[in-house]
Amino acid sequence: MKTQIVIQDSGEQKNIEFEQILIVLGSNGAGKSRFGSFLEKKIAKLSINDKKPKLVHRITAQKSIQFSKSIVIGNTTKEQLKNKLFGGQDDIKEENWSNPDWSRGYYKYQSKNKDFSYDVGRLDDYEVLLQYLFTIQTEIADRDRKNKIISQEETLFEKVCRIWEEILPKRELAKQGFELTAKIKASEKYYSASVMSDGERVLFYLIAQTLVAPENSIIVIDEPELHLHKAIMQSLWEKLIIEREDCAFVFMTHDVEFASRINNSKKIWLKEYLGNQTWEWKEINSDDSIPEDLLLELIGSRRNVLFVEGETGSWDFKLYQTLFPDYLVVPCGSCRNVIDYTKSLKIKL
Known about the structure:
This protein is of the alpha/beta class. The protein has helices at 32-41, 78-87, 104-108, 126-147, 156-167, 198-212, 230-243, 256-261, 292-300, 315-323, 335-348; strands at 3-9, 12-18, 21-25, 56-59, 171-176, 179-184, 191-192, 218-222, 248-253, 266-275, 278-283, 304-308, 327-331.
């Protein structure tokens, strides 16, 4: 399954086509968040093969990771919570989740702009997410009690906990009544998950948001590196991409290490936002003339680049860094590599 996105490049309409993963790389201020907002609003006919528009499920960089100790469900139904999670309000039904003319941004992002600009305002849906997971879990438990059976199927909540514990193997999660709790595996004492570290709460949130996304969605993740250690970030997204092989993923990041480690992905470089939903951008194509990880590092830097002979840590490398403090000094080994990298970079950039 291929996904196609049409965007403006310096006034010219161009297509971005990718299989499952698109990585949008850009420095701060290049317009990555606006690009995510653009995708969420311009969702019609994003898929080449599907006539029905896909839902773009966007996980923004600006989000609250706070939630109450006890999660109150009340009389709210699973359908109402689902509407609120994806549409911003419990009476915005599924047929309007993907309607760009619906005032979804006003409810979901608390936007005050007349055009309901989605990139304005902070996403605050952690508690709704937990309510949704707990409601499903409670429905399954009630069904099993009624039928006097013990279900062997893994629930959505259990799957979220399993992946969370695979990433953090020394921790354990549990649902106790209407409270999400956690503990160190070596301990018997549980504590409220509402006081977990930022990283632990963000990890749960990202896993849950990805797993609850409707089938065949385009999941847009703005700054996936926020609050997460590099050691777990790649493992997390590798697991989630496999779990949601029905979905397409769009990562917007300035973390070049993360971008270089995600395999089988299309990569584009957002150079600058030009206004009026137009960007200056370029597809990143790696070849043997310059390694991809180096190319991404150069693109991620806003400094001028100076290719030099030698290796990292050598005396000549340190000398060049001292003489040219405003440059990104890149040791290339041989003089032949300096020439080849310079020629290649001129062509690519």
